[in-house]
């Protein structure tokens, strides 16, 4: 297909979605002497405009580790949190009662141990003088050991109860933004229930590409991100790279994930964005914008003629093209071999 026969199709494509521009890295331009530029067909990549959804790479729930009543809640939907930040406190009144009971048991066991150790010391003194038998001394030693172990058991049980109280503090499992808080102060929760859902700070773009373009979606392909707000006009504001292509069609579309290094931190999770993906290649004319000038609202270039007098020609311009210098697609008005001259 020649560049001239493609004009109608290209014009229709641009008017339908101006953001579906042409962006490609071109080879060295065909410059002639004295700064002239020779128009030649060049192969460029077409970019198709599709919608992508901003997704968090990980959505992790912050869960309750104990059952009880939510007594404190320090975050709400949309808040930013850091890893380990306390976001809620859950209180189980039974644990405080249990600790008071264990304190009483510990005091009783401490008294019993003190008495057993006293009896053991007295028994050793009597055994040294031959008043009591070794069997009696062994009984006193056993009684002291039992009292000591019972005291250690009660102290361990108290530590467990204190740890359970400490686990009432619900912490953020990672840095990110709070998506949902399904509880309020006073809510009774069970162990394992979700207190908040937190989306990590690393966002991805989830693309849904029509099936007819599936063969063009490849790992590592570059994507161009349009301006925020679903506006169909405007230049790309960022770039990304496709990191995952899912091997199953969903609703006649190929699903892929693209990673963006920056530019999505202020987006909402689930917000849609316009992106451009590569959708094949074609031949067209590309000229430097420095050779274009306007007159009466029309775009002109100067074309060299045989008699040496440049001829001003009206051209129809398309989308900008990425190159060593600002370039633009020429949809009409030029043919292969034309030599452009500067003003």
Q: Would you kindly provide a written description of the structure presented here, covering whatever features stand out?
A:
This protein has 343 residues and is an alpha+beta fold. The chain has 3 domains: 4-57 and 202-341, Elongation Factor Tu (Ef-tu), domain 3 (Beta Barrel); 59-92 and 168-200, OB fold (Dihydrolipoamide Acetyltransferase, E2P); 94-167, Orthogonal Bundle (Helix Hairpins). The chain is built from 3 helices and 21 strands. The protein has helices at residues 7-16, 93-128, 134-166, and strands at residues 37-38, 41-56, 59-63, 68-73, 80-81, 86-91, 169-171, 176-180, 188-189, 194-200, 203-210, 222-225, 238-250, 253-260, 272-288, 293-295, 298-303, 311-314, 316-321, 327-332, 339-341. Strands 2-11-14-13-12-15 form a 6-stranded antiparallel barrel. Strands 1, 16, 17, 18 and 21 form a 5-stranded antiparallel β-sheet that branches. It has a 4-stranded antiparallel β-sheet with strand order 3-10-8-5, with no helix packed on it. α2 runs antiparallel to α3 (134-166). It is rod-shaped and about 140 Å long.
